């Protein structure tokens, strides 16, 4: 996971970011942003990812596959959510080749119990344009929504994702970006050994992981209060979704924040802005410290709270997120990674 706007692919970020695969471009990538494709609706606005793909005839097989999966509703719901997501979309020609190589018909593919996983392995959390990918320290690996690892690299100027070339980059959507590809991705299983399986089994989701750490009890209390608020969607996403990267202020950070702002713990817990504050400490995609440090810092990444978060590195090698220092990196969880920080992030809304 390691893009520029991803923010955290290195220390954090993806698309996911650790975000951790590959985006390819068909046109010359020296100026990837010039290839950006925006498909306005009748009202002049972008559409969500699924609707955007549905409007493109060259991706009709992919759209049919999404609709045909047993849990297609779950996939559609995921990609229809706020995101952001990056989707690597095989075009119709890619599916034709895939079917021929595997001796399948369209009907057999649409009836396959593996179809849902295949589709999920073409999407990563986080919005990563071609420019973002090219700014990364390639090759990198990112985790897909299907739980597999996707390798992203650059070959002869082309972006290669899971061995397939990006041929139509930067198809923009309201909740992310789509990159058209010339092949179907067959991602690798992240579980490469029994020891890896055992280690993963011992991990807990982000909220449970934080709850087991006494140094973050104030943050956990805040999450619990926000979970009962009208703005609880951020907490629901953090519990059920992922992967995410959380920048977690420790108890000392909250104490300093309260003193500086002249607030009591009761006042901040009762604040209508609490969910938004918490959301601005979370970004889509799993970005370890190594992912972040591999990025071309400084960068800005979007938070679940809707703000842009600046990630930078000091001359002595410390990673700063929203002006706060990471003091306890890489606390791993089943649905992402946590980085303990020494201050509460306050960022302007987008």
UniProtKB/TrEMBL annotation:
GO terms for cellular component: extracellular space. PROSITE patterns: FAS1. It holds the Pfam family Fasciclin. It comes from the Eukaryota. Residues 1-26 form the signal peptide. Keywords: Signal. Residues 46-185, 203-345 form the FAS1 domain. Gene3D superfamilies: FAS1 domain. This is FAS1 domain-containing protein. It comes from Mantoniella antarctica.
């Amino acid at each position: 996971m390691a893009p520029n706007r991803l923010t955290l692919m290195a220390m954090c970020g993806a698309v996911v970011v650790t975000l951790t695969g590959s985006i390819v471009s068909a046109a010359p990538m020296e100026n990837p942003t010039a290839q950006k494709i925006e498909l306005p609706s009748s009202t002049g606005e972008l559409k969500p990812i699924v609707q955007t793909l549905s409007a493109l005839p060259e991706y009709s097989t992919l759209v049919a596959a999404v609709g045909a999966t047993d849990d297609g509703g779950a996939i559609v719901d995921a990609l229809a959510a706020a995101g952001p997501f990056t989707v690597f979309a095989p075009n119709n020609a890619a599916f034709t080749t895939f079917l021929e190589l595997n001796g399948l018909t369209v009907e057999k593919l649409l009836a396959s119990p593996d179809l849902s996983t295949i589709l999920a392995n073409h999407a990563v959390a986080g919005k990563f344009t071609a420019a973002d990918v090219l700014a990364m320290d390639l090759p990198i690996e990112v985790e897909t929504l299907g739980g597999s690892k996707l390798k992203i690299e650059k070959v002869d100027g082309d972006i290669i994702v899971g061995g397939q070339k990006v041929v139509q980059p930067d198809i923009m959507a309201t909740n992310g970006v789509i990159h058209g590809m010339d092949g179907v991705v067959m991602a690798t299983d992240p579980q490469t050994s029994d020891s890896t399986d055992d280690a993963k089994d011992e991990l807990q989701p982000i909220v449970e992981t934080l709850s087991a750490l006494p140094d973050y009890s104030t943050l956990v209390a805040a999450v619990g209060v926000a979970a009962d608020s009208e703005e609880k969607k951020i907490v629901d996403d953090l519990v059920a979704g992922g992967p995410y990267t959380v920048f977690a202020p420790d108890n000392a950070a909250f104490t300093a924040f309260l003193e500086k702002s002249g607030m009591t713990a009761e006042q901040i817990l009762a604040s209508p802005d609490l969910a938004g504050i918490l959301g601005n400490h979370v970004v889509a995609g799993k970005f370890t410290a190594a992912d972040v440090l591999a990025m071309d810092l400084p960068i800005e990444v979007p938070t679940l709270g809707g703000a842009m978060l600046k990630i930078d590195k000091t001359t002595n090698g410390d990673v700063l997120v929203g002006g706060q220092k990471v003091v306890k990196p890489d606390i791993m969880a089943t649905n992402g990674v946590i980085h303990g920080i020494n201050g509460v992030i306050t960022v302007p809304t987008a």
